[in-house]
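Hello K.,

You asked for the raw outputs rather than the summary table, so here they are, unedited. I folded two proteins back to back in the same session to keep the settings identical. This is the first:
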Amino acid sequence: MSDTTWDPARYLAFDDHRARPFHDLLARVGATAPRRVVDLGCGPGHLTGVLAARWPDATVEALDSSPEMVAAARTRGVAAQLRDVVDWMPGPDTDVVVTNAVLHWVPTHPELLPRWIAALPRGAWFALQVPGNVEAPSHALVRELLAEPRWRGAVPDRGDEPVPSPVQYAELLAGTGADVDVWESTYVQRLTGEDPVLAWITSTALRPVRDALDDAGWAAFRAELAPRLRAAYPAGADGTTWFPFRRIFAVARTP
């Protein structure tokens, strides 16, 4: 998985917006009495407690590859493990796996999914949610700026490639013999404040850029990117910026 440095506080600045897809995903998981529930890529652990509350008799396992995120989760009382998802495999008692806004950082995840599902016990649930907005202006403008002479080569390839389409996820998961439910949603988020789209992507998509640049370079990059984002996502008279936020969901239940 990516070795990107994460800022839990900045990530949680948009907690309400980012949490909604998690709840919509979890609503499609029909497990009643799972033995073990895994939060695969738990981030700062703010949603792991939702899993524990829904299934209070289950063992809840949380892991993330970011030391900063694991530390933040532990301050919430979550016994998070520092572990890369690519090295993880479900145990024989793993009845629910939830991975929320994680797998788009793992280019090999289409190869991992069939292995994980094959290792799950009968009747287990695997639920994933990933962003599907790599072609949106919020991401395309970053790529365009990084391709310009001043920035070309300054940032390693971010692996900013589209995730599989909903149909591709459906075909991949159905090929395992699982019962599959796949859908997509576009949330139109109401953002406010100065350069809100820049603030939004700073906590996620721009993390690899921040890691690659020194403080002066980072300030210069943001200064060039900000007006482009303002033009693509203009604020209304009331100060509201509407930000379309497309997500892809898939839930698989093993036979």
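The second followed immediately with the same parameters:
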Amino acid sequence: MQLGVRIPCYRRWCDAGAVRAIAQTAEDLGFDSLWVQDHLVLPTGGEAHLAEGVSGWMDGVAETGMTAHDYYGSDDWWLDPYAVWGFLAGATRRVTLASDIVVIPYRDPIVQAKLLGTLDVLTGGRMLVGTGSGHVRGEFEALGLDYAARGRMHDEHLRIIRALLTGEEVSFAGEFHRFGPVRPLLAPPRRHLPIFVGGNGRASIRRAAELGDGWLPSMVTPDGLRAGLAELDRQSERFGRAARPPVAVSLPSELRMPDGAAPPSRRPDTRPEDALDLIRQYARVGVAHLSLAFRVTSPDIYLRQIETFAREVLPGVPGRAAAVAAGSVSGPGPG
């Protein structure tokens, strides 16, 4: 299993020094990937600007929402994922640069194809793109986009990005975009940059099977994930795939490693043995990638969380010892 660390793009302390330290620490300690996130503006117009909840059908939990202000938190901070990816490209050597997620409808698909292809060139083929449809109506309104059409926009943007990343001449005629023939003026090192479609709903699973290289749900339990995987199998068969696409899971707030210097929290610490047991459960149901976040109180605390996890949990992750022995990942340094 591949394990990655979230870059807390949404915390005000997440500046150049913090991003560099998190990225290089995670890479040096043997993590496989770094994950960025995406929001553009904070809508402040009141209840009309709710952030919709993540679908909970797999775990039998009703969808819930919250005001956008509560969702974004009190920091009023969110770094752009494409810019952070460029920074990470220069700060790291080995790790995959991923997203959980980039909201694909927010940006022109031709521009995004150019950005992604350029990043894949400059990183030597280290990109893994997690995409989403978005769930904050106010952000779509600020951009002049139809919130109700976001799923159809997601589909069309993916088709355009896919076509342009081949490096070949492209023409396209769809609901939202019409162009061509054009040449993309870029030849990425991989003609098929991996795109994992994010989202917990059935429409997202359909999109992953039809248009993606993988599926990326968030905060679903290993047991709940089984229902999603069954749906992914059905959709994969529907679209003629020979096998189920790989699955990544985003865990933005699940793990809180013990730290005596961290301020008190309402959420309990995660014992290393419990963290390892959870990861092994995800591995048993077939998860290929996990995106992990830790306590985000400060950069020092976040870094200590990464170090504790690398020392006490990472060596026991399924497949980790063999990967270290083969030299495909680094092992944790002395603790």
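The chain has eleven helices and 13 strands.

Happy to rerun anything if the numbers look odd on your end.

Regards,
P.
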